Every structure is written in structure tokens, then in C-alpha cells.
Amino acid sequence: MDYPIKLTIDPTVALEANIQVKEQLKWLIGIGHISPGELLPSTNVLAAQLGLNRNTINWVYHHLQEEGIVSMHKGRGTLVLDNPQTDELRRSRMLMHELLERTIEEVRLKSINAEAFFTASLAYGLMQISEQTTARKLLFVECKEHDHPFYSNEIRRVTGAEVKTIFLEDIESSDTILTDALEFSAMVVTTLNHHDQVKRLLTGKEVKLCIIGAQVETSTFLEIARLVEGSPVTFVCLGKAGGQWMAKRVHEAGLHSIKPYAVGIHDHAQLLACLENSEHTYASAAVYSKVRELAPDKVRRFPMLLEKSSETLLIDFSQPTK
Fold it and tell me: Does the residue 118 lie in any domain?
């Protein structure tokens, strides 16, 4: 695609090239110069343009995918997603853009050297960071079948902390994964889905634990309530357990008239069968784009929200220790 603003790499900036590229792409997406539904340049093209190794661009795209901003498709490219994560990025970056525009104009009116001003701003920012404690890293423990990118992104959004995700399946297959991960942070976050299991794993370890939960947007329940009684409805997530969680939320909302099916994105044969036999399909944000490609007229996003009480818990949990 043709970019209104070219990406640049500044070797004098104390940030690695991969971080510079990632943040510039997030900025362009955030302020609307790259829109949902557009493809990013191929790794080869962008690497050649910037004089970087292709693996550097691969790293950038994989991290953007982990943040829920893009979806990578082998042989087809990297697509900017239209989802809550991108909406939040656009909301925050537009606010920053407006603030920066006003600040730059103020700097100009006061005849302040712009380079000196932003260098001083960097120093100020570094001093602010140094005043915070090191308790800004959080370890997130979840299974691979639930929409773990949603939770990790929400934890990051609410706390501003660096979040490392480890999976229960991996912990169960290795004696060292949990121990090694706790060296990253002894502040652990998990979900209501697995809190008992995680508590058992952490028994005897000096850690702090925060348990969070998610809810579903009311509009989705209203949609489902209008379906004809007995309508087959499929719920798709990263794994079958995630789909079952989605179906359970609908049941708990008092909607018992549908015929629910739960399936994971990697069970391709079962997924195709469910899409064929269901009149409506709801997919979590992590798999929505892939599922919609298979049945665009049937698939809707299953919008999740972090519970307000969980936001409060996370904010309190992540506060710096004086």
C-alpha cells in the first residue's frame, strides 16, 4: 500500500529498530493513516525499504498480532483488524495526536527549539519511569483454549504493565516453565476459569495473585434472544473450552431456547460442519477474522468486556509499592 507517511529508522534513538517500526505502525493505524481491512507491506518489502533484516519485520508483525491489532495469513499478507483492540488503539492514539499537535503549536509560538524540547521531554519521561517501582511486570496464566489475547491486552490496557503470558498446558508438561516465569514477575494474574488450578500451582510460592473475569456485551444477548427457538448457534474460540465458556455465558443469561455448539478454531473438520449446520455463529475476537473468511454471512463477533470489578482489582494490584 502507499503510505502517506514513510517509516524511518533513527540509529541515534535509544530504541531497538524493531520497537521503532512497531510503534510507528501502531501510530499510523491509530491515527487512521492505515485502516482496518488494509494489508501491511510484506516483510520482504518493508525490510528492504528500511534496510532491515526480514526477521526484524517478522518480529514486529508477530507482536502486533499478539496485541490483537493484525492477523497474519501465510501467502496472503498481514491484515489490520477491525476489532475492539484496534478501536482502543485508535481512541488512545487520536487523543495523543491531538495533544501533540497542540503542544507542537505551543512550542512554535514560544519560539522553543523543537528538538531540544522533545529531548527534554524524553529526559522527563525517563525520570518519571525511574521513580516508579519495578512492580510493573505481570505474569498472566491461562489455557490455550480461551481467548487469552483478549485478557492479556486488557491487563496491559488497564495497568500499563509489561505482561508475559504462560499457558497451563505448558506448565503441566514442564517442571521449569512456571519457576522460570516467576523470575519475570511474582505478581500473577489469572482468570476465574482456572483460579483453583493456578492457586494449587502457586501453593508454597511467594507470589501475589489477582483473579479477573470477563462479561459479554448486552447487545449480543439481545441478538440471540431474537432467534427462533431451537436455532442452532455455534460458538468458536481458540479451543473448544473457550467456545463452551461463550455458550455458558449465554445460558447463564437465561437464554435457553437455542441449540448451542462449541468448537475450537483448530478443529477444522468440526468447525466446517458446525458452520454448515448452524444458522448463526459467534466467534471470539482472537479467531473472528479467520472464521469470518469461512462463512462471512453467518459469523458475528462475540464481544467480551473486562468486568468493572476486575479493572478495579487490577489497578489496585499493579500499584507501585512505595
Answer: no
Same domain, 203 and 239: no
10 Å CB burial of residue 269 (0-12, 13-18, 19+) is: exposed
> Which domain, by its residues, includes 182?
137-213+308-317
Q: Are residues 87 and 232 in the same domain?
A: no
pLDDT score recorded for residue 133: 46
Is 289 within 8 Å of 81 (Cβ atoms)? yes
Q: Based on the number of CB atoms within 10 Å of its own CB, is 49 exposed (0-12), middle (13-18) or buried (19 or more)?
A: middle
- Is the CB of residue 320 less than 8 Å from the CB of residue 136? yes
Residue 181 neighbours by CB under 8 Å, 6+ apart = 139, 164, 166
Q: What is the largest CA-CA distance in the chain?
A: 70
The C-alpha atoms of residue 252 and residue 122 are separated, in whole angstroms, by 50
Q: Tell me the DSSP string of 208-244.
A: EEEEE-EEE-HHHHHHHHTSPTT-EEEEEESSHHHHH
Residues 141 and 189: beta-carbon distance below 8 Å: yes
Question: Comparing C-alpha atoms, which of 226, 187, 225, 222 is closest to residue 207?
Answer: 187
171, 139 contact by CB (below 8 A): no
Question: If you ran DSSP here, which 8-state letter would residue 320 be given?
Answer: P
Q: Does the predicted TM-score (pTM) go above 0.70?
A: no
- Which residues, in sequence order, are bridge partners of residue 273? none
Q: What is the CATH number of the domain that holds 230?
A: 3.40.50
Which of 81, 102, 123 is the C-terminal boundary of a domain? 102
Q: What per-residue confidence (pLDDT) applies to 295?
A: 92
Using pLDDT thresholds of 50, 70 and 90, give the confidence band for residue 114: confident
pLDDT > 60? residue 134: no
- Give the three-class secondary structure for 104: helix
Q: How many domains does the chain have?
A: 3
Reported as a pLDDT band with limits 50, 70 and 90, residue 139 is: very high
Banded pLDDT at 73 (limits 50, 70, 90):
confident
Nearest CA-CA partner of 67 in 56, 55, 83, 52: 83
What integer pLDDT is reported at residue 95 of this predicted model? 92
